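quick q for whoever's on today - can somebody do inverse folding on this one?? i tried earlier but teh output was garbage lol. tokens:
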């Protein structure tokens, strides 16, 4: 069966290498889009089981010691995620943004929404979070409303003034379907902020490409998929000096966009993919980590893994 690009639907793609997490799922690269993607990908049932049983094991540093708001806040402080949420909120929310409807898609524990509330308590705040553990920590808040999915939000008949999608877009296999559904809760005045890992950042290990992210974006590829679905790039933003992420501020316009045609396809992502390493030592360390998860409770591994963040400070 032929493999085609998830953005341009073209067949000018190259098979690169199998992921270190599942040898049957391989990384492909599209020459036209400077884009990486996984194929074959999970079925819906397989994806549900992956997020239920495996996803948190990849990111043990994101597992709080207790399922409490206090413990989650400590975890986010230790990893710098609380600082990131605060910087994002300060970039997007103004103190005079009174009574605006704001929704965070992939809201996690609600930390970003809480930061927005601290800036302006007159906002009407909403979130979408399918993860039951994370949703549990935010669904009882009197500051915002949390929903399971976009279909539930559609029933509100609310048009949102600002939409944030932080490190969620790369989790989506069918980007066109998602962007089409998004149009039902926005209009041409809505400001949309999409943040993804920067595939052109100088990552060196094949473990960067993991099963939760079927998309590996470059500046060209994220611009292209948005343009092809009638979203115009207003700006490429940044809240600090790091270069390991991309933020696009966009707006839906009911006509085709061609900003991506003005971007040079330097194929930098392919060069990074081709030079990514995974040796015997890397495989051994992954083996130790996988075995440790079976023996040591995840909450203790979370505490141990966060020590490196404190050490960096």
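ok took a stab at it. sequence:
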């Amino acid at each position: 069966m032929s493999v085609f690009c998830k953005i341009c639907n073209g067949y000018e793609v190259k098979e690169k290498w199998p992921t270190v997490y599942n040898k049957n799922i391989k990384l492909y690269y599209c020459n036209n889009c400077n884009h990486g993607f996984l194929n074959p990908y999970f079925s819906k049932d397989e994806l549900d089981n992956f997020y239920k049983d495996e996803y948190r094991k990849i990111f043990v540093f994101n597992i709080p010691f207790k399922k409490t708001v206090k413990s989650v806040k400590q975890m986010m402080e230790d990893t710098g995620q609380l600082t990131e949420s605060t910087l994002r909120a300060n970039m997007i929310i103004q103190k005079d943004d009174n009574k605006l409807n704001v929704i965070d898609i992939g809201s996690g524990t609600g930390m970003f929404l809480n930061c927005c509330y601290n800036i302006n308590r007159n906002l009407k705040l909403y979130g979408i979070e399918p993860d039951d553990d994370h949703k549990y920590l935010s669904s009882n808040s009197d500051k915002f409303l949390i929903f399971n999915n976009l279909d539930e939000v559609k029933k509100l008949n609310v048009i949102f003034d600002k939409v944030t999608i932080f490190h969620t877009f790369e989790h989506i296999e069918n980007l066109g379907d998602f962007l089409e559904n998004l149009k039902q809760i926005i209009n041409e005045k809505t400001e949309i902020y999409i943040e993804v890992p920067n595939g052109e950042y100088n990552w060196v290990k094949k473990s960067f490409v993991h099963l939760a992210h079927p998309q590996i974006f470059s500046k060209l590829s994220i611009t292209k998929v948005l343009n092809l679905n009638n979203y115009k790039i207003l700006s490429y933003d940044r809240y600090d000096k790091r270069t390991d992420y991309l933020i696009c501020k966009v707006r839906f316009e009911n006509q085709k966009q061609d900003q991506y045609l003005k971007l040079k396809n330097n194929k930098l992502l392919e060069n990074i993919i081709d030079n990514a390493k995974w040796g015997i030592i890397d495989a051994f360390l992954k083996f130790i980590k996988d075995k440790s998860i079976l023996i040591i409770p995840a909450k203790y591994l979370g505490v141990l893994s966060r020590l490196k963040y404190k050490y960096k400070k």
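fwiw The chain has a mean pLDDT of 91. also The first strand starts at residue 13 and ends at 18. so keep that in mind when u check it
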